[in-house]
Write a structure and sequence with these properties.
The protein is an alpha+beta fold. The protein has 4 helices and 4 strands; from the N terminus they run αβααββαβ. This is Transmembrane secretion effector.
Length: 115
């Protein structure tokens, strides 16, 4: 089963969402606590970006050690019940449950040591 292979690899997580105009300052102030909260669940290497050509479009990138960690964080980020993550719903242009979240594995490295 392929799931076992993914559990041993670090996964790059990509989250993308749009913030409603006029809510950027409140959202950006709130974002200061998100990296620390993600670390509590096993995320590392957090980066946060805003699109140059699409105002209000934000992307978060971070790594997780397993598929289980990814699924847990994805579920937590999509619920209003979480005391930190749930606040994103206040500023998003669509329901929090629809935040875009994907996990990727790095394909730029060779899978074995053969040359």
């Amino acid at each position: 089963m392929k799931v076992g292979l993914y559990m041993a690899e670090r996964m790059q997580v990509f989250m993308e969402y749009k913030i409603l105009a006029g809510n950027e300052r409140a959202y950006e102030a709130w974002m200061k606590q998100v990296p620390k909260e993600l670390v509590r669940y096993g995320a590392r290497d957090f980066s946060w970006f805003e699109a140059w050509d699409q105002p209000g479009l934000y992307v978060e990138l971070f790594t997780v050690p397993s598929l289980e960690t990814y699924e847990q964080i994805k579920d937590l980020r999509r619920t209003k019940d979480h005391p930190v993550f749930g606040d994103l719903a206040k500023w998003m242009h669509k329901p929090l449950e629809e935040v875009n979240c994907w996990a990727f594995r790095d394909r730029t490295e060779k899978e074995d040591s053969e040359t």
